[in-house]
Design brief:
The protein has 257 residues and is mainly alpha-helical. Helices cover 56% and strands 5% of the residues.
Length: 257
């Protein structure tokens, strides 16, 4: 025979053993309630880091981790554009982890980086944030800098091709519509909490993409970026990663000399 009751708003039912002892089953919600508060691993960025590591393991979870990572990144593409266009505040740490993951995956057969870029073309705010996150991660992380340097020519080609194909892609009437073009030339991006920015920029210059590598793309970019103050600021910051005395020149039509 059992006794039914309610405690703390939850129903419970006891049972009676052969010797008459009342036994109350373990509270099924206790395991959940006793868990520590969620950590950064509950975020998109934290989970991508875990799943990338698992997808490269030799254990039986490898294939499942790859499938889960693909699903997670697909969900991120959909939600990030909504967040960005709506002006929602998001964790910078979370965004940077996703950016680091996408750069890391660019060395593999994964299409995640291109998938994100193509998806974000419809959202200039989301694309601008993603480009900035790539650059900030690369400013502080040598490995990410190598990945960014390898991926950036393709990133420039994709964005510039999209603008050439549709001049109204980012019409000036849209919120922050010109920002992606301002981020096209890769300039180091400092964290707001950096206590020694000069040392950071000096270190970032080692392995940063060079103007020689991007010369034709920068020449193509200049006519599109004319009239965007942030774009010229970015170009100056990019050139500061080069040795003093470097002579580089582009005219307003994008011709280099």
């Amino acid at each position: 025979m059992g006794i039914q009751g309610v405690t703390r708003g939850r129903a419970f039912k006891t049972t009676t053993t052969s010797d008459g002892t009342l036994v109350r089953p373990r509270d099924p919600t206790r395991r959940i309630r006793d868990q520590p508060p969620p950590t950064r691993q509950s975020s998109f960025g934290g989970w991508t880091v875990l799943l990338v590591g698992a997808s490269r393991s030799s254990e039986c979870i490898q294939e499942k981790a790859r499938e889960a990572l693909a699903v997670l990144l697909t969900a991120h593409r959909s939600s990030a554009t909504v967040w960005a266009e709506s002006g929602f505040s998001r964790s910078e740490e979370d965004r940077l982890e996703v950016a680091r993951t996408l750069l890391d995956l660019s060395f593999t057969t994964s299409t995640a980086l291109n998938d994100h870029l193509h998806s974000f073309l419809a959202s200039p705010v989301a694309l601008s944030e993603l480009l900035r996150d790539f650059l900030q991660v690369a400013t502080y992380d040598t490995s990410a800098r190598l990945s960014m340097r390898q991926a950036w020519p393709e990133i420039m080609d994709l964005v510039l091709d999209a603008v050439d194909a549709d001049q109204d892609l980012w019409s000036e009437g849209r919120r922050r519509s010109r920002e992606p073009l301002a981020k096209m030339v890769p300039a180091p991006q400092l964290s707001i909490g950096d206590g020694d920015p000069d040392s950071t920029l000096q270190a970032a210059a080692d392995g940063w993409p060079s103007a020689t590598e991007l010369d034709a793309r920068i020449a193509r970019w200049i006519p599109l970026a004319t009239g965007i103050p942030e774009a010229m600021d970015g170009l100056v910051s990019f050139l500061r990663t080069h040795p003093k005395g470097s002579r580089l020149r582009w005219d307003s039509r994008g011709s280099s000399s």
